[in-house]
Amino acid sequence: MRRNRILLAMMAAAAGGDLALAQPREAPYAARPKVEARDGAGVYRAMCQGCHMPDGRGAAGAAAYPSLANNPKLAVAGYPLALVLKGQRAMPAVGAFLDDEQVAAVVGFIRTHFGNDYREAVAAADVGAMR
């Protein structure tokens, strides 16, 4: 839980928010930082590139951040969608900071960039159904 709070604080700072906004999971939604970007590239820059790097190749250091580049796991849209919304292991559920349109945009972005060419569209309705 402490590691998740630290990650949330780092994401809040990267999004231009105040570190005090990164609250435990029980915090009201109004206390969460708001990501202003609406397009997939902007959401990626605000929420994802701090760990997955600007080129999507991931990183290793204090933790291992998986590469999104040329990633066959992104072929099925439900996989990255579930990770963004629900998180997994060290990946926090960053979908809590985004509305359905932003989640759809960033998932579409990572599936069509960094050497990926998965064109199946992800709609906001798909995100809402998975939430």
From TrEMBL:
Alphabetized SUPFAM superfamilies for the sequence: Cytochrome c
Gene source species: Siccirubricoccus deserti
Molecular function via GO: electron transfer activity; heme binding; metal ion binding
Domain of life of the native organism: Bacteria
Stretches assigned to the Cytochrome c domain: 35-114
Residues of the signal peptide: 1-22
Protein name per the record: Cytochrome c
UniProtKB keywords: Heme, Iron, Metal-binding, Signal
